[in-house]
């Protein structure tokens, strides 16, 4: 799959979400696909960063942590977990307060 084009993703107008998808132009549909792809790529990168930080610090991620990471769709929460992973003693401390 080719890299999502940031310009196309930026062209997506959020106000289109109020209009039925069938009424969108092909360019609008393509811009929406690109914006979703960029969002998903960013979330995957943040999830990997948390795991890599723990790995680098010699901390084994728990199954619970891995599951929470897999299903987390919040960039802010993933950043919080990454920050915690940089100082945590255990994997449970990364997600323990949420």
Describe this structure in words.
It contains 5 helices and no strands. The chain is mainly α and 98 residues long. The longest helix has 31 residues, at 26-56. The N and C termini lie far apart (35 Å). 14% of the residues are buried.
Summarize the model shown.
By secondary structure, the protein is mainly α. The protein has helices at residues 6-10, 26-56, 63-71, 75-85, 91-95.
Element layout with pairings:
Blueprint: H1 6-10, H2 26-56, H3 63-71, H4 75-85, H5 91-95
Helix pairs in contact: 2-4
Low-pLDDT ranges: none
- Protein structure class: mainly alpha
With helices defined by DSSP (H or I, 4 residues minimum), what is the helix count?
5
**How much of the residues is beta strand, in percent?**
under 5%
Head-to-tail CA distance between termini: 35 Å
Largest sheet: none
Key phrases:
5 helices, 98 residues, mainly alpha
